[in-house]
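hiii so um. not sure if this is the right channel but i have a protein structure encoded as tokens and i wanna go backwards to a sequence. like what aa goes where. can anyone help
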């Protein structure tokens, strides 16, 4: 599933390529992609509108249009938004096609069909249920070491489960959680309440560092993820632990371990990330 760096990379590329362009036509191939109201109404409401700005909130992508309307998009596991020429070969699981005023197209594809989009009045986004539930943005000024300590205080849940909870931190997923915990030297199965203030400070810095690196590397691609120009990310080439179970730790040479935390596979170094 695309995480914060991947969605942010898509946002940046859409901002560069699509902002300022008008929607000349909308073709909906898979109606289930439209999550609210008749898909015909969705297409009619978009016709002639202009993409003004693109925003990210957690793993959600918000496309703001003129006329105070916004498209809320969640890529889920395999969703893609790709800007391309109209003669580009149509991907098998292309569900929505926006024909743009510059003659190119913006296509939404989704192999697993878990993603989708919804048209919302921009002023109503503050009441949009899925966005309301999201926690603090980990790259914002609101995310401070003090806030992280408050989130950890008295919590008996495992630290990885806590930072993966989108109501705590918006946008952090399995890849970057493993990477951040490794940098901070914290075992993923430790109880959140056992994390000291000094460790919380390290974790705060580590979370921001791995996310910023992920964005700089244009995201992590193992299979499905590409940016809005169809380009794969490069962050997979510099991961320390994620996807490296059984291989040697880049710091100490110890064989990396695996554990299931909240149903998610976690990779860690038993030496660098002790259980206590």
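sure thing!! here u go:
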């Amino acid at each position: 599933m695309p995480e914060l760096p991947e969605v942010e990379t898509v946002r940046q590329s859409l901002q560069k390529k699509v902002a300022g362009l008008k929607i000349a036509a909308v073709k909906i191939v898979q109606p289930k992609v439209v999550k609210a109201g008749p898909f015909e109404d969705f297409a009619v409401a978009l016709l002639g509108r202009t993409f003004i700005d693109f925003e990210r909130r957690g793993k959600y992508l918000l496309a703001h249009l003129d006329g105070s309307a916004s498209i809320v998009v969640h890529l889920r596991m395999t969703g893609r938004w790709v800007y391309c020429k109209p003669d580009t070969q149509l991907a098998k699981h292309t569900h929505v096609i926006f024909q743009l005023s510059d003659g190119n197209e913006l296509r939404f594809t989704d192999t697993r069909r878990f993603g989708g989009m919804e048209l919302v009045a921009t002023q109503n986004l503050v009441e949009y249920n899925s966005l309301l539930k999201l926690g603090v943005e980990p790259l914002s000024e609101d995310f401070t070491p003090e806030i992280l300590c408050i989130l950890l205080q008295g919590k008996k849940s495992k630290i990885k489960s806590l930072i993966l909870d989108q109501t705590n931190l918006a946008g952090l997923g399995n890849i970057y959680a493993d990477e951040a915990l490794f940098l901070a030297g914290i075992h993923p199965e430790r109880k959140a309440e056992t994390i000291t203030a000094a460790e919380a400070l390290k974790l705060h810095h580590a979370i921001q560092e791995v996310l910023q690196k992920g964005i700089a590397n244009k995201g992590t691609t193992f299979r499905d993820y590409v940016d809005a120009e169809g380009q794969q990310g490069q962050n997979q080439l510099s991961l320390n632990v994620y996807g490296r179970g059984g291989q040697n730790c880049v710091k100490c040479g110890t064989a990396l371990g695996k554990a299931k935390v909240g149903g998610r596979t976690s990779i860690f170094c038993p030496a660098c990330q002790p259980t206590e």
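oh and Helices lie at 4-17, 39-46, 129-132, 145-152, 159-164, 174-184, 197-216.
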